[in-house]
Structures are given as structure tokens and as C-alpha cells.
């Protein structure tokens, strides 16, 4: 049956990713091999390891790289500890409530990283919520919670923990209820069932979550810049500094490549380590966990308490910063970090909506998001049909390539695309920005649309064919209406992902092409006024409203179905 159809439908996505994803990464490799940086020099030069020698011989770069690694490891561990209770809660939630519960994860996930970092600042600042609450009990304020490694770890955990939750949820929801019934019939308490059944069976999800969280946190710079206060440096911050301020794109490329290799090395080590605990997946004998009898009462008593404490901490960390941003947007203070409520005012919203200060940036963000979304849908729909209905050799490898942008650092993409746009000056910056945003959207669009295509009723298509409808009529009258809920959900998620993107966009914006999140990040970095919170509140409400609209058509817990 038309073996060529699967590869043909896969071609548009593959070609786009080769141009807008693989080509910038190749450019990064070439840039890193330059002997010295020349912003206007040719891309391909005589190869040299000078940039890597400079990194290895300079104690500053050496320290920043290792500081980034241990920060990323800490964020990964904390995300796993806090993510497990939330994922377990979602997986055990009754179906009719699960979609609503999923909003706890999806609202922060789809909210701008700058907005979420502003909320963490309000939580940890000298006049922040924590010091206000502790002051009620006569505890002196702690004025050193901001601008240190702990603040950066908290902020990065808040940003990336949702990915850990979704990865763990994938496995926990697939555990058969009969397994729990069998464990219960043998006398296992809920705490023992988790340690001996759910935890081992969730290790594949833990592995995926650890890899994604480490790779993302190791190259992030927005939260580290805002919460580190230049006292904490990460490799992502150095890449942005060298590429945009020092115009040393070769060193920036080498640093990005170092962290890419480091991230891949972590992925390999995590895979090898956790695979040793999952011998049953590879034909080996399982090694059941046997707890000493004297430990079981302790686990049964402390397990539920620890679980609920971690769950409460997770929910507070995910949602409280967003609530603080919303409250601060009405606060009559000049300094945005002053969390104490001094008086109600609407002047910050007046500046946002009436002064027109953000209008140009808002229009740019909408144009980029709509253009990137349109391209993503056009090329992702055929790819979804190729995956769901037309199996072909090499499909698994191709899917892994399509999902690769989720794991490889976006700072590397930014450096590579910046250099390519300098070479191909005839390509407008807007096109380059849209191309990168399509890369950001595609993994989610392909995942969501593939699930929608699998859910189509092929019997309806066969009935239409028996009534004389040709392929085009079947597509327009049967397939498209069946795909509308999935297309709508994908459109909302894709628009939010593009509209809120900061990491790679910061490399490609110009004076006339600055998106709203980048504008917000710049203001939060230099002049933190409550107008940033007013604008952030608008973005939070936009996310909530759009997710509520999506929930009318597609259950939110199925947005991540794979």
C-alpha cells in the first residue's frame, strides 16, 4: 500500500528541521572551531581548538561550567522530589476531575518564564512574602534569600518541574490497577505499594524527566540572570554575554557546544544508571525491593506525611509566584520587589493599556506567533498522519529527530541562527525568528496532532468512500471536522509557546523586532517597576482563559497524550 506515502508526508517537517534546526547547530560547530572571533568573517575557516583551549585554561570559564553542572543536578533532584507527589496525585485522580487538576501543571508550564521569575523574586525578596509571614511570628527578616544559588535553584525548579511531572505521569497512569490490587491483597500498605510497585515502574518516566530537566536547566539564563543578580553565573548567561555584548560568537559557540556535550553525557550516564534498575525491560530478572520489617512501620507512618508535605510544597511553588505577580500589579509602590501591599492602584494597568508603551512589542509577538503557528500546523498535520497511519522504515529514528529540539539547548540554536542570518542578509530577521519559533512549536504540535489522528474513526472515512466521496472530499468533510478539536488545542498551545518564548528569541530580536517577553525580560533586568507585573498578570490571565477554552474541546489531561 503506497509505501512512499509515509516518507512523503514526513518530508516537510524533516526539511524544515534540517534548515532551521540542524543547520544552526552545524553553524555552531563551525563557529566553535574558529581560531579567533570575527563577527563578519566567513563561517568555514581552518579548524582550530583555540576556543576550547581558552575555556579549559581560564579558571573563570572552568568554574562557571562546573557551577552550571551542579546547579542543574540540584534542580533535577529537587524537581524529581517535588514532581513525584504531583504526578502520583494526577495519575490517581478520578477521570472527571483530572482535567481540572492538570491546570495546576499546565498554567505554569505555558506561562512566560520571566513572569514566573518575577513571582519568585516577590517570594524571596527582603520585603517578600516569606519575610512578611515570618515577621508575624516575631522572626527577624532574612535579607539574603535573593541573588544566590538557592534562589536560582528555586526559580529553575519552578520553571522545569512541570516537565518532570508530565514525564512521571506518563508512566504512572499506565500502571495497571491489577498490579495495585495484587500488592494490596498481599498486605502492602499504600506507602509500601509506592516503594515496591509504583516507584520501580515509573523509572522510565524518571529517566526521561531527569534528562529533559537537566538539559533545559543547564543552558537556561533568564531565571539565573534575574535571581542570581550577577553573583551566580551559568553557561547560558555567558553564551548570551559573549554573543550579544562582546560579539565573540566563536567563544559563545564553543561554550554552547561544551554544555551540549555535557548534557548528552549526563543523558548517557542517567540512562545507564537507571537501566541497571530496570533489568526486566531488557529480558533480565527483576530485583524486587524488600524492606526490613522494622522499617515498614516507619515508612507507613512517615510516608503519607512526607508525601503531602512535598505535594503542598510543589503546588505552592507552581502557583503562588503567579498569584503574587497578580497582587503586585495592583500595589501602589515604585519598587516592584516590595511585596508589602501599600495601597490599591490601577496606574500600572493604565501605563500598559493607555500609554501604548508595549503596543509595538505586543504586535510583533502576535505576528511571530501566528506566522509560526500557521507554518507548524501546515507541516505537522502530514507528519502526524505519517506516524499514525503510514508506517515506514526508519520512522522511529525520524520521530526522535523531530523531538530533538525539546532536549538540545536553545541558546545554541540562537547563536547558530544569528550567524546564518548575518551570512544570508537577504533573509529578513522576521523570517529567521519565525523559523526558530516553528522549531520550538513542532515537537508539541506533532505529539498533539498524532494523538488526534489516532483518535479519528476510519469507519466514517470508509463510509464516505462507499458513497462516492473522493480523497479530497473525505479529507475536507470527514477528516478535518474530526481533527478540529485537536487542531484547536494545538493552535492554543503552539501560540502560547511561541508568544512566551524568550531564550532563543533574545538572540534574534532587533530594535524594530522586539517581542513582548523579550521587552519584559529587558525591563525586569534593568528597571523593575510594577508595570512588568501588570503586563505579566495580563499574560497569566490570557493563558488561563485560553486553556479554559481548550478544555471545552479537549480534556487538558489529554494534551500530553503520547
TrEMBL record:
<feature type="transmembrane region" description="Helical">
    <location>
        <begin position="249"/>
        <end position="277"/>
    </location>
</feature>
<keyword id="KW-0813">Transport</keyword>
<protein>
    <submittedName>
        <fullName>Putative spermidine/putrescine transport system permease protein</fullName>
    </submittedName>
</protein>
<feature type="transmembrane region" description="Helical">
    <location>
        <begin position="12"/>
        <end position="33"/>
    </location>
</feature>
<keyword id="KW-0812">Transmembrane</keyword>
<dbReference type="GO" id="GO:0005886">
    <property type="term" value="C:plasma membrane"/>
</dbReference>
<dbReference type="Pfam" id="PF00528">
    <property type="entry name" value="BPD_transp_1"/>
</dbReference>
<feature type="transmembrane region" description="Helical">
    <location>
        <begin position="430"/>
        <end position="454"/>
    </location>
</feature>
<feature type="transmembrane region" description="Helical">
    <location>
        <begin position="475"/>
        <end position="499"/>
    </location>
</feature>
<feature type="transmembrane region" description="Helical">
    <location>
        <begin position="399"/>
        <end position="418"/>
    </location>
</feature>
<feature type="domain" description="ABC transmembrane type-1">
    <location>
        <begin position="65"/>
        <end position="270"/>
    </location>
</feature>
<feature type="transmembrane region" description="Helical">
    <location>
        <begin position="209"/>
        <end position="229"/>
    </location>
</feature>
<keyword id="KW-0472">Membrane</keyword>
<keyword id="KW-1133">Transmembrane helix</keyword>
<feature type="transmembrane region" description="Helical">
    <location>
        <begin position="534"/>
        <end position="554"/>
    </location>
</feature>
<dbReference type="GO" id="GO:0055085">
    <property type="term" value="P:transmembrane transport"/>
</dbReference>
<feature type="domain" description="ABC transmembrane type-1">
    <location>
        <begin position="362"/>
        <end position="550"/>
    </location>
</feature>
<comment type="similarity">
    <text>Belongs to the binding-protein-dependent transport system permease family. CysTW subfamily.</text>
</comment>
<feature type="transmembrane region" description="Helical">
    <location>
        <begin position="298"/>
        <end position="327"/>
    </location>
</feature>
<feature type="transmembrane region" description="Helical">
    <location>
        <begin position="69"/>
        <end position="90"/>
    </location>
</feature>
<dbReference type="InterPro" id="IPR035906">
    <property type="entry name" value="MetI-like_sf"/>
</dbReference>
<dbReference type="InterPro" id="IPR000515">
    <property type="entry name" value="MetI-like"/>
</dbReference>
<feature type="transmembrane region" description="Helical">
    <location>
        <begin position="362"/>
        <end position="387"/>
    </location>
</feature>
<keyword id="KW-1003">Cell membrane</keyword>
<feature type="transmembrane region" description="Helical">
    <location>
        <begin position="145"/>
        <end position="169"/>
    </location>
</feature>
<feature type="transmembrane region" description="Helical">
    <location>
        <begin position="102"/>
        <end position="125"/>
    </location>
</feature>
Amino acid at each position: 500500500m503506497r509505501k512512499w506515502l509515509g516518507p512523503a508526508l514526513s518530508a516537510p517537517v524533516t526539511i524544515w528541521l534540517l534548515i532551521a534546526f540542524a543547520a544552526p547547530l552545524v553553524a555552531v560547530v563551525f563557529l566553535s572551531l574558529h581560531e579567533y572571533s570575527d563577527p563578519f568573517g566567513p563561517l568555514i575557516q581552518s579548524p582550530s581548538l583555540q576556543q576550547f583551549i581558552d575555556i579549559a585554561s581560564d579558571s573563570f570559564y572552568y568554574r562557571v561550567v562546573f557551577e552550571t553542572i551542579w546547579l542543574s543536578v540540584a534542580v533535577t533532584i529537587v524537581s524529581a522530589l517535588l514532581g513525584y507527589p504531583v504526578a502520583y496525585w494526577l495519575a490517581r485522580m478520578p477521570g472527571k476531575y483530572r482535567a481540572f487538576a492538570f491546570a495546576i501543571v499546565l498554567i505554569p508550564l505555558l506561562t512566560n518564564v520571566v513572569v514566573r521569575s518575577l513571582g519568585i523574586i516577590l517570594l524571596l525578596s527582603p520585603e517578600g512574602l516569606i519575610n512578611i509571614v515570618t515577621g508575624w511570628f516575631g522572626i527577624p527578616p532574612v535579607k539574603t534569600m535573593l541573588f544566590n544559588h538557592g534562589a536560582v535553584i528555586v526559580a529553575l525548579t519552578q520553571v522545569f518541574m512541570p516537565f518532570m511531572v508530565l514525564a512521571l505521569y506518563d508512566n504512572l497512569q499506565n500502571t495497571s490497577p491489577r498490579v495495585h490490587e495484587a500488592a494490596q491483597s498481599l498486605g502492602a500498605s499504600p506507602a509500601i505499594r509506592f516503594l515496591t510497585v509504583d516507584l520501580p515502574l515509573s523509572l522510565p518516566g524518571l529517566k526521561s524527566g531527569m534528562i529533559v530537566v537537566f538539559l533545559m536547566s543547564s543552558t537556561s539564563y533568564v531565571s539565573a540572570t534575574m535571581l542570581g543578580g550577577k553573583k551566580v553565573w551559568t553557561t547560558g548567561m555567558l553564551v548570551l554575554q559573549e554573543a550579544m555584548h562582546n560579539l565573540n560568537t566563536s567563544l559563545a559557540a564553543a561554550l554552547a557546544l561544551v554544555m551540549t556535550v555535557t548534557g548528552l553525557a549526563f543523558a548517557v550516564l542517567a540512562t545507564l544508571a537507571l537501566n541497571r534498575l530496570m533489568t526486566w525491560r531488557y529480558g533480565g530478572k527483576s530485583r524486587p525491593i524488600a524492606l526490613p520489617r522494622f522499617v515498614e512501620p516507619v515508612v507507613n507512618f512517615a510516608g503519607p506525611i512526607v508525601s503531602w508535605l512535598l505535594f503542598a510544597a510543589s503546588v505552592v511553588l507552581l502557583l503562588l509566584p503567579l498569584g503574587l505577580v497578580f497582587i503586585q500589579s495592583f500595589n501602589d509602590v515604585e519598587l516592584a520587589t516590595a511585596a508589602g501591599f501599600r495601597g490599591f492602584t490601577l496606574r500600572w494597568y493604565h501605563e500598559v493599556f493607555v500609554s501604548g508603551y508595549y503596543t509595538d512589542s505586543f504586535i510583533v509577538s502576535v505576528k511571530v506567533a501566528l506566522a509560526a503557528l500557521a507554518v507548524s500546523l501546515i507541516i505537522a498535520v502530514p507528519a502526524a498522519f505519517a506516524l499514525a497511519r503510514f508506517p515506514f522504515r526508519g520512522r522511529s529514528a525520524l520521530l526522535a529527530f523531530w523531538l530533538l529540539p525539546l532536549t538540545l539547548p536553545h541558546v545554541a540554536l540562537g547563536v547558530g541562527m544569528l550567524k546564518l542570518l548575518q551570512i544570508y542578509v537577504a533573509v529578513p530577521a522576521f523570517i529567521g525568528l519565525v523559523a526558530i519559533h516553528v522549531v520550538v512549536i513542532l515537537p508539541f504540535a506533532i505529539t498533539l496532532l498524532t494523538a488526534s489522528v489516532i483518535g479519528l474513526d476510519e469507519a466514517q472515512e470508509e463510509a464516505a468512500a462507499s458513497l462516492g466521496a473522493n480523497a479530497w472530499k473525505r479529507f475536507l468533510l470527514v477528516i478535518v471536522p474530526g481533527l478540529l478539536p485537536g487542531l484547536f488545542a494545538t493552535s492554543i498551545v503552539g501560540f502560547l509557546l511561541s508568544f512566551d518564548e524568550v531564550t532563543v528569541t533574545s538572540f534574534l530580536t532587533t530594535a524594530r523586532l522586539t517581542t513582548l517577553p523579550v521587552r519584559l525580560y529587558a525591563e525586569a533586568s534593568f528597571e523593575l517597576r510594577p508595570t512588568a507585573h501588570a503586563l505579566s498578570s495580563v499574560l497569566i490571565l490570557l493563558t488561563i482563559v485560553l486553556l479554559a477554552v481548550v478544555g471545552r474541546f479537549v480534556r487538558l489531561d489529554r494534551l500530553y497524550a503520547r
